[in-house]
Amino acid sequence: MKLRASEWIVVAYFTYLAVLALSSVVPRRRRLRVVATAVLVIAVVFALASFGMPAAVFRDWTPLVFVLLGYWTPGLLVTATNPRFEQTLLTLDHRLFGPGSSAIEQRVPRRLIHILELAYLFCYPMIPLGLASLYAAGLREESDRFWTAVFVAVFGCYGVLPLLPTRPPRAVERERAESSGAIRRLNLRVLGVASIQLNTFPSGHAAASVATALAVGGHLPAVGLALGLLALGITVGSVVGRYHYAADAVSGACLGLAGFLVSRFV
Question: Residue ranges of the domains in the chain?
Fold first, then answer.
């Protein structure tokens, strides 16, 4: 039984969450849920590895579940946000764009805002689209390198959440008409169902999309370019739509690049 590099990252990340839970002040039930999730994920990783080639396809696609669990689980360790850090991020945004969400809207054409909202909606299928592109090109053997890039990027974001929890800027400013535009309403509805209602610093969406685009572009330049433009739209859209602070987006994009660079050593 031999674990892939990406699988070792999963094991390390969920071990980190379990250790963090044991020293956390959150209610005991939450701590147990985090530890139980970590044990389950690690057990699944080793189980799939023990089956070898018969489980190869499952090992390629099961990481999608690990990404989701890696996002939801650290939220259980948060009881309150960090107002001081939240204000620091918000102050930086106001220095860059002016006070309030309306300041950004006034600088961006409304049609472009709708395009960026649509781009942001694609942050959810971005990762599976990237892996599917490699599969379609007959590059399934690159899945480990792909997941290494993605895991370094997203877990680097999610792992910080219990340490620096903040509210998203849209929840702080409350100036923007939340119902403006059908795509905007759809984005908010999806976030209402799937989000943990906390801001990740760095931005997991920016990190994942940049890492995905670079990992695919290293083998399929044309597809990578298309995904790269989408990643740019997701990153910018996350700020314009006030889903993330500017610092979240920039640091997330940097983590995406870091994940790609790390994957080159696999």
Answer: 5-263
